[in-house]
Amino acid sequence: MNIDELKNTWNEDIVEETPEISIEQRNKLNLPLEKIRKNMRVEFWWVIGIFVFAFLVCSVCRPFKLQLYITVLIASMLIVTVFFFSKFFKLYNEISNPAPKTYDSLKDLVMQLNLNKQYYLSYYISFAPFLVCEILIVLEFIPWPKPLSELKIAVILIGSVIIGLFLLYLAGKFWFHRYYGRYIQHIENLLEELK
Asked: Where exactly are the transmembrane stretches of this chain (predicted)?
């Protein structure tokens, strides 16, 4: 095969373009994206309110040792929250742009939403060590009518951790599905329609 034939063959190949999303489909996409953005804003302000309230409560705790432990615990929780919310903020900025115009950009958006789903569940699971610390602080500082045996302390600690982790996981799954998951499912369905 000479070079002219190769050029002709190259020019004859039809390059497949990425299919565009119609205006009607973009309008269908805007509603779930707007709901996700709205829920992200509301959740952000709730979290700020919760941390402000937590630090205010912490400021009135006595004795000083209890106040110190709780302050350090809440500050650590704040650091973890800031890390995860920086990831969520990046997604918020990306979905604040106009709706994707091509199939590939919609596919990329769905991938980012699913990645953030994993971040979201990781955010809830990351509170497991804080749960353990809170239980330890409660066991240490609550005045019991009679001292607890080591076995009772171990049972309370292990039972609380198991139940607490289970409830954290369920709360995270429920919260995500209620405020984000169903909208992501709507977007995934739209993606399936476009195939």
From this structure: 44-61, 68-89, 121-142, 154-176
Look-up of token digits 């699971």 = 125
CA 121 – CA 84 distance, rounded (Å): 10
Name the pTM for this structure: 0.77
Chain position carrying tokens 């990425």: 18
* Of the candidates 114, 84, 90, the residue with the CA atom closest to the CA atom of residue 180: 114
pLDDT digits (tens, 9 = 90+) for 89-114: 988 888 877 666 677 777 888 888 88
Would the CA dihedral through 85, 90, 96, 102 be positive or negative? negative
Which pLDDT tens digit goes with each residue over 67-91? 999 999 999 999 999 999 998 998 8
Q: Which domain holds residue 159?
A: 22-194
Is residue 6 situated within a structural domain? no
Determine which helix (DSSP H) or strand (DSSP E) holds 143, and give its type and residue range: none
Q: How many domains does the chain have?
A: 1
Do the domain assignments include residue 123?
Answer: yes
